[in-house]
Structures are given as C-alpha cells and as structure tokens.
Amino acid sequence: MATLELNNVVKQFGQVEVIHDISLSVNDGELMVFVGPSGCGKSTMLRMIAGLEELTAGDIQIGGKKVDHLPPAKRGIAMVFQSYALYPHKDVRGNLGFALRHAGMPKAEVTQRVDAAADILGLGPLMKRRPSELSGGQRQRVAIGRAIVREPEVFLFDEPLSNLDAALRVHMRVEILKLHQRLKSTMIYVTHDQVEAMTLADRIAVFRDGVVEQCGTPLELYKNPANKFVAGFIGSPAMNFIDSNVVNGCAEHAGQAVINMPDGDSNHAKVSIGIRPEDVRVKPDGILSGTVQVYEHLGGEAYLHLLLQDDQNLVVRTDADSAYRIGDTVRFDVIDSKLHLFGENGVALPRQLTS
Amino acid sequence: MRSNPLSSMAIHGVLILYSALALFPLLLIAINSFKSKKGIFRDPTALPLGELYSTKGYQSVLANGDFPLYFGNSLTVTLISLVLILLLGAMAAHGLTEYRFKGNGLLGLYLILGIMVPIRLGTVALLELFVKLGLTNTLTALVLVYTAQGLPIAIFIFTEFLKSVSGEIKDSARIDGLSEYRIFFEVVLPLIRPVIATVAVFSMIPIWNDLWFPLILSPGEETRTVTLGIQQFIGQYTVNWSAVLAALTVAIVPVLIMYVIFSKQLIRGITAGAVKG
Fold first, then answer.
1. Residue at B186 is within a domain
2. What pLDDT is attached to residue B46?
3. Contacts with B199 (C-beta within 8 Å, 6 or more apart), sequence order
4. Is the Cβ–Cβ distance between B130 and B156 less than 8 Å?
5. With a cut of 0.85, is the ipTM above it?
6. Which residues of A touch B180 (CB under 8 A)?
C-alpha cells in the first residue's frame, strides 16, 4: 500500500530519447492503466519503475521514499510479465515460493503465504504441476500469484493478458479487477488495449511518443479528451473526425452549419469535428446525409459506415432492428452537446453547449 | 503428420544404410579384437567363432599394467575440459546476450573466431609456450588446449540459443532479488540444459579421440592418454593388431557411457520444452 510518484522522468537509449520528462502520481490503492500504441514508452516507464531500466534523469518515489537507486527487489514492487516468465524447472509451489525462500523467510511462513495466494487464485489442485503442464490462463494465474505472495506495495502488470485468447482475456480481466478490489493495493497496468484500460482503470494515462497525452478517469477521457489522439484512442468504435471549414463562427459540413465555434474564437479557419458513433441520430428529416457503404450487424446493435458528400467517412451506431442496404442514402442529425472540436494542431477547443 | 508409406520406407532405407555404414568399422574392430593376428588377416570379416576365437589381444592389454593409468588420464582430461568448456562457454554466452556494453559484438566475434582457425596450426607456438611455463608432460597442458579448442563452438551455440530465451524470465528473477550470478546458475542454466547436453556430446568426442596433442605436449609415461597408450602396440616392424583392436574396443566403452548419459538428458530436455500449453 503506497503512493507512487514520478518526477520529471527522462529516459534515453543512446542518443534517442524515448521518455520526455514525464511527471505522474498514482494514489494509494489506485489502479492506474498506462495505455498507448506500441513504442509509446509505456513499457519502458514500467520497467523503470520496476528498476529494470535506469533513469536518465528525474526520480521515482514509492510511499514517499526515493527508490530509483535501489535494486528491483528492494523497491517493494512485484511484476507480472506478458510471457508469464515462470521458472520452467520448478513446479507451481516452487514458482510461488521462490522469491520468499530466496529472501530467507522461514519455511512455515512461506508455505502459509503460498497457500493463501493459491487459495485466492484457485491454484490449489495445480501445486505439483510444472508450467509446461498448465494452460495459458493457469500460467498467468501462477504469475499473478507469484506477485501476490511477496505482498508488494505496488503491483506492476506488463500487458499480462496479451498472450491469452479473447474469451480468456475477458475472464482474466474480471479476475484482476476482483483481485484489486480484494487486495486494495496500488497497481500499475500497462496495455495497448483501450477496452482493457476502460474497464480496469481507476485512472488512465494515455501515452504517445514518450509523453503522457492525458491522465484521468476513464469517463473524463471519454467525455473530455484533451486532444484528437486521446479522443481517437479511447472508445470503440473510434470517434469519427470530420474536417470542417469555419464560416461565420460556425463549423460547417457540406454547406450545413453543424456546430457553433466557442464564443470569441476567430483564430480557426479549419477544425475537426469529433463525433462518436453513438452520438448520431438517424432520422428522415436530419440535416446531414451520407451513403451506406458497409452495414455491420452485431445482434444487439448495428453500425453503418457512411460516405459523406465530400468523401469523408462516418461510422454511425443504429438500432438493432433497422435494416439498410448498401447504397442507401441515410439522413441523420448529430447531438450537438456531445460533439468535440479540435483545432488544426489536434488540441481540443472548449465547447459551447448551444446548437 | 501426413506420411506416404513409400517415402517413409525410402527415409528409413537411407537411415538404415547410413547406420550400417557408420557402425561397420566399429563392428569390425570389435569382431577382430576377439581374433588372433592370424585370424584377423585370414578372414577379416568372419565372426570370432571356433578356431578363430582368441582373447590374446585382451590378455596383452590387461597384462600391460599401465592401461588403467591411461584410462584415468583420458577421463580426467576429458571431464575437466568438458566442465570448463560448458561452464565458461555458457557464462560467456550469457554475458554476450544479456548485457549491453561497448564492444559487445566485437568481443562475440573474437570469441567465436576459433571456429574458423584450427588450433593445430598453433601447435609450435603452444609447445613453446608450455615449455616456458614448464607445463609439458602434464595433464594441465592438455586440459588448457582442449578447453581453448572447445570454447568457440560452445560459445557460438550457447549464444544462438540464449538469444531465443525470453528476457522477461531473467527480469523476473531480478525482481525476485537474485544476484546476477544466481540468475545465471539458477535460472539460465536449467533453461539451457538440453543445449548443454548437445554441446557436451560433440565437445567430448574429439577430446577423447585426440592423438595429436597428447603426442606432442604430454608423451611422458605418466601422462599418456588411451589413444597414445595404444600406440605402444604399433611397432616399427610389427604391429600387435589383436592388442590394438582390443584396446580400441575397450576405449570406446567410456565414451559410449558418457554419450548415453548426455543423450538421455538431451531427449528429456527436448520433450520437457515441447509440451506446450
């Protein structure tokens, strides 16, 4: 149980700077998710917290104590790896207890802690098996168990579910969430999957190219993305961006005024209008229209991929009981209050909640 | 796997042919070691039955009290060299693959350069060196030479294999608080056990069979190896073939035993890794 502070952390590999001056704090008991595309620096950041990579500049504090000069084992952390990283020549019990036995803990206490962790994760019947005799999900559970027995102050997860198949991934995601509610410990979870981030996180930090683009609760990020990158990354299907010209203080599309620009904002001649697929209402007298290119029906809901008049694309969510054919023209309105505006540099503009 | 009976037969045919080819000389040695010299030359391929049968060769080998010493020398040299090759080779490969440092690539290249340069080219220099060190007629000299001879290919193979081992398991051990040495001995070594067996098998055989270096560096009575010891039956004018063949047959046995030990490890290692979840 501890807070984690990153202060002005910089990391260079040779001449290449991969982490640019990141400062971030994780509260006690919080599950923070680092999310971003591959190569964005999220895993490097995690490895620096773990002590597997050295910092080029800045410092890291766990529970108010500076730890960046300490070896990994002394930082009060435990890490779960994507490839599970189990010791193949030890059975499950051996894997779970290895770190404790190595630290010189009395046998009885090791057994007790290992049994407790095995109990939490339902590993009881598997204790005598070797990693090669376990399924992917079981191996991941052993890897998590190995972290639990150490009773760390901070748990670090490095894409722990990426090697599992889709169904198991959803199941393990729920298990990790339950585990967090039960242990109430500080956790940092790295993933490239925004659904995992949205469902697990207390707060999400969105990484891109070595900087944190935005940090906040999943809903904050969903409702008020700070820029186009975060807006496009969070939410599935992704937000649509419509390039638009500003005429008389209004962002318009195909000659139709779509949304007012913020008061007094006359600096922008071109903006991107961000429209989530769920914020579009299809109706016969809608002011905008497009042609159906693809119609995806998922059972509970359906998505229309529309080609707008000026050759831009728009994905729209519709009712499950609607029926469209390719080539149909669809008229629709957008819900003004839920639109997003982004300037040409990608930064979100403050919104005006009038039509 | 799809298997056409015809192609499977062809494959087995080739394998059987090759096995026969490889085994034939060994069989010939073993058969003829149980014949008298006359028997060997009268009918080299006949089985040692009836009047051909003779244990004279074995008798003269056993009568020669030095053979246990030669065996001891060969075993000592082979085993010590093997341990050194495997330990140092694995350590070097681990260092080369695990740590980033300046000149890493160059050092790796330097260490495996020996694959391309036969160590025998340096025999004269080696002999001079050992004379100056006062190491001629010692087993130490042989151990040093064989270790140097075996290291390049061992490092090469270990490096290639270690490159494929996930770095996460070593990181995980680091987080568990293991020192770098213990990571090597407790995590990396068990992981590369099948490769260790492979390297052991083909490092061992050339050492056991070598005649060149014992002849040049350690020809003394006390330090003779088996291969050199056998030479005493080969005279300038007469060769005691029964004794030579008998000694050779006996000399095969220890290598065979070591091979069986390692190949068992080898197969166990392979199957342990192959059961995938």
1. yes
2. 78
3. B85, B86, B89, B153, B154, B157, B158
4. no
5. no
6. none
Pairing mode of beta strands A4-13, A16-26: antiparallel
Contact A52 B175 (CB under 8 A): yes
Q: What is the CATH number of the domain that holds B178?
A: 1.10.3720.10
Considering Cα of A308, then A313, then A319, then A320, what sign does the dihedral take?
Answer: positive
Task: Give the per-residue pLDDT at A352.
Answer: 52
Q: What is the pTM of this model?
A: 0.79
Question: Domain residue spans in chain A?
Answer: 4-233, 240-342
* Cβ-defined contact of A88 to B168 (cutoff 8 Å): no
User: Are A135 and B190 within 8 A, CB to CB?
Assistant: no
Cβ–Cβ below 8 Å for A83 and B272: no
Judge whether B29 lies within some domain: no
Asked if B102 is an interface residue toward chain A (Cβ–Cβ < 8 A), one would say: no
* HSE toward the beta carbon, residue A112, CA cutoff 13 A: 5
pLDDT of the residue at B2: 61
Topology (CATH level 3) of domain A240-342: OB fold (Dihydrolipoamide Acetyltransferase, E2P) (2.40.50)
Of A52, A102, A146, which is closest to B171 when you measure between CB atoms? A52
Q: Is B272 on the interface with A (CB under 8 A)?
A: yes
Cβ contact (<8 Å) for A72 and B175? yes
Residue B225 in domain:
yes
Quote the pLDDT of residue B276. 39
Among candidate residues A213, A253, A249, A201, the one with its CA nearest the CA of residue A346: A213
CB atoms B177 and A81 under 8 Å: no
With cut-offs at 50, 70 and 90, classify the pLDDT of residue A353. Answer: very low
CB contact under 8 A, B273 and A88: yes
For A117-162, what is each residue's pLDDT tens digit?
888 888 888 888 898 888 888 898 899 999 989 889 999 999 998 8
Comparing alpha-carbon positions, the chain B residue that sits nearest to A52 is: B171
What total of structural domains would you count in chain B?
1
- Among B175, B190, B276, whose Cβ lies nearest the Cβ of A89? B190
Q: Which of B166, B174, B277 sits opposite A83 (nearest CB)?
A: B166
Name the pLDDT band for B144 (thresholds 50, 70, 90): very high
Two structure tokens written together for A218: 């999943």
d(CA A143, CA A88): 12
The answer, for B171 touching chain A at a CB cutoff of 8 Å, is yes
Please compute the mean of the pLDDT values over residues A233-245 and round it to a whole number: 89
Is B165 within 8 Å of chain A by CB? no
Name the residue among A273, A270, A264 with its Cα closest to residue A247: A270
CATH number of the domain at A4-233, please? 3.40.50.300
Q: Tell me whether residue B216 is in a domain.
A: yes
Q: What is the pLDDT of residues B50-79, one digit of tens each?
A: 777 888 888 888 887 788 888 899 999 999
Burial class (CB in 10 A: 0-12, 13-18, 19+), A183: middle
A71 with B171: Cβ contact below 8 A: no
Indicate the average pLDDT of chain A: 88
The nearest CA of chain B is from the CA of A213 a distance in Å of: 28
